[in-house]
Amino acid sequence: MEKNVLGTNVIAQIGILVHDIEKTSQAYADFFGVENPGWSITAAVESAQTQYRGERTEARAKLAFFKMGSLQLELIEPDEHPSTWREYLDEHGEGPHHIAFRIEGMKDKVAALEGGGMPLLQKGEYTGGRYAYIDTMETLKVIVELLESDKK
Amino acid sequence: MEKNVLGTNVIAQIGILVHDIEKTSQAYADFFGVENPGWSITAAVESAQTQYRGERTEARAKLAFFKMGSLQLELIEPDEHPSTWREYLDEHGEGPHHIAFRIEGMKDKVAALEGGGMPLLQKGEYTGGRYAYIDTMETLKVIVELLESDKK
Questions:
Q1: What positions belong to coiled-coil segments (chains A, B) (predicted)?
Q2: What is the tens place of the pLDDT at every residue in B19-72?
Q3: Structural domain tally of chain A?
């Protein structure tokens, strides 16, 4: 595989899986002395077009975002439908799930990674952009997420 | 507990546990198109004064550091002696172990955290500073590491 497929090595986000986003968000807010940002829920499959391991999935998650220096810490409380969030939480328990990078050219990058033996785990759309989780567990020991913003 | 005991919310480092630091370092170097930084080993207990759960431990680890944007990604391959590294690797498998923050006033901060129900897991000295891992799993779902540099 071509080196530096992502075109960046700047970690933009750390994602942490939790069972109770309200409780853990408040714990972060208290610990770091910042405001509780509240949570939002990912869009339904009709608009998010969520796919997990190649199959359409109804999975959604509650998300809360904290600004921690130059990066974002994301808390994720998944629902019961199949997703990398649900699977990883069931297998590993609460804790870090991914590191994320802001990229351009999602389709080409995902194809290059898949060609290099790093399969797409899950993808979806959100207002203003899209994400893809790549199965980099074997090589990097953590899941990598690609984040692409629409051109303004 | 007082809010914002750390005095910062800037994540300085992410630590990832691995079984084979040479293999995983090379995988990171290849993936991100950067130089393999090589690894170093933590000092022996005589100089590191390593303590794990209140007991002196001979534990050492091989460490490799990658600069990823404004933060450091640390790969950690622990030896077989008791440590938070060994315990977490045995329980959770390879993957993220901690997020680290640069702080001042290590003793006071550790005491304040312990008073707030977040026990010291492990501590040690290194050339130019010291570290402490805090058991924040219950509340924050990830271990927090404090890093203090000696005044220059």
A1: none
A2: 999 999 999 999 999 999 999 999 999 999 999 999 999 999 999 999 998 899
A3: 1
Give tens-digit pLDDT for A100-113. 999 999 999 999 99
ipTM attached to this prediction: 0.94
Q: Which of B3, B20, B32, B65 to mutate to test the interface with A (most CBs of A within 10 A)?
A: B32
Q: Is position B54 within any domain?
A: yes
Is B6 inside a domain boundary? no
- Which residue range forms the structural domain that includes residue A126? 13-149
Q: Is residue B58 part of a domain?
A: yes
Nearest to A148 by CA among A132, A129, A133: A129
Pairwise CB contact (< 8 Å): A69 & B66: no
CA dist list (Å): A76 to A38, A48, A79, A141: 12, 16, 10, 19
CB contact under 8 A, B9 and A93: no
Q: Are B47 and B128 in contact (CB under 8 A)?
A: no
